[in-house]
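Hey, resending since the last one bounced:
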Amino acid sequence: MVASPKYEQLMRFAQAAEEGLSQLEKHDPLHRQTIEGLADMIERVTHFRQHQGFQGLTGEAINKWLEASLSRYDAEFTGYVSGFSHYVEARRMLKHAAEDARLLPPALLDSKTAAMRDLAQVVIPYTKNMGFFGLPFNSLATTGEAYVNAVEAQANAAREKKSTEILARITKASFSLASSLRECTEAMKKLPDSKKAQQ
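The structure tokens again:
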């Protein structure tokens, strides 16, 4: 039995990704409600600012507070939408990586090849070698076990290579996404709190 550490690692990732994605889908309505709620809040405050009716110092104070509030709400809305876009991209990345993982063959041998393992001799067609006295020969003989082991090792090497490529792609995309999301998070931290916004 050949070792397939990268394939096994990838399949553990695929299973965890699929389970996680299934759970995340349950929260989709909440994200829509949040975005709609933030947009509605901005619209209501904007409407109130346009029709608040106060003048003089009171009107100026109310307008100042409303401008600060709108500025903050706009930034929060932009920040949430940006964060949500990162979240959607992360889910897309997980989904495609899991799909790519599932395309890899779980079995390294087909049933006919596996059945050849116990054969005493297997003849392999081969035409590139020259035999004794320069005479060509067009086949090689080996044991069934040696042949099947070689086919299995070759298939495993190809699957391990593909698994490594998929894992590397996931890692690279994850680091890029995390870096971008970190920038978004830092920008949100710089938003003034409500009390400071009114001063």
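Residues 170 and 176 are 10 Å apart (CA to CA).

Sorry for the duplicate.
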